[in-house]
Structures are given as C-alpha cells and as structure tokens.
Amino acid sequence: MEKSVLLVDDKQEIAKIIMLYLSSTYKVSYKENPLKAIAWLQEGNLPDLIISDLNMPEMSGEEFLVYLKANYLFSHIPVLILSSVESSSNRIRLFEEGAEDFILKPFNPEELRVRVKRILR
C-alpha cells in the first residue's frame, strides 16, 4: 500500500520541489499552515509521515509538533522538521519534543528522499 505524507510549509515554492521529489513514491498532501493541517487531520486523515517547516506565521512548526505529540490520535505519526536556522539547541529541543528527524534548508532533495524512505520503511 502506498505510504502517505502530509507536507506543511507556508512557502509554496519549497512545497512544489518537495512534492516533485516525493510524489512518484508517496501520496503527498499539502497544507500551507499548521492550522489547515490540523483541520485536515481532524477530518480523519492520518498520514504515515508529516514534514513540517519550523518557521511559519500563526502557528510555528514547533507548536504544531507539540500539539501532535500531545494528541493521542496523532502522537504516533513521525514528524520531520525543516528549518533554515542552524542551531543545535533548537534541534535538541525539537528532538526532545518528539521530532523524528530534522533537515536544514536549503537541502539536497535526494537527502530528503532518503531520510523519508528511512523513516517510512
């Protein structure tokens, strides 16, 4: 069965690149912010992986991660965080909050593909 990925990023250019790389292997759904993603999840959609940007308006990727991990319906879904800020203290905090992986932007799309494959195997 085809694995599904929810992509949450307010920058559509980046989302298009990610979807281009992942859509041949996975069913990719896209939401431009965490609030829309939460509404989509609450409709009963349960992806196998969530890829979320860290810095977004309204609700940050970190707040989204904390929400997901605190909710028993979604806490089992692995979350891969994308960020343009290189900070080991940020990464450590995100891992402590339950992030499965972290990729620094700009990233090599092939690295993203391999990391997603590793998480979903």
TrEMBL record:
<dbReference type="InterPro" id="IPR050595">
    <property type="entry name" value="Bact_response_regulator"/>
</dbReference>
<feature type="modified residue" description="4-aspartylphosphate">
    <location>
        <position position="53"/>
    </location>
</feature>
<keyword id="KW-0597">Phosphoprotein</keyword>
<dbReference type="InterPro" id="IPR011006">
    <property type="entry name" value="CheY-like_superfamily"/>
</dbReference>
<feature type="domain" description="Response regulatory">
    <location>
        <begin position="4"/>
        <end position="120"/>
    </location>
</feature>
<dbReference type="GO" id="GO:0000160">
    <property type="term" value="P:phosphorelay signal transduction system"/>
</dbReference>
<protein>
    <submittedName>
        <fullName>Response regulator</fullName>
    </submittedName>
</protein>
<dbReference type="Pfam" id="PF00072">
    <property type="entry name" value="Response_reg"/>
</dbReference>
<dbReference type="InterPro" id="IPR001789">
    <property type="entry name" value="Sig_transdc_resp-reg_receiver"/>
</dbReference>
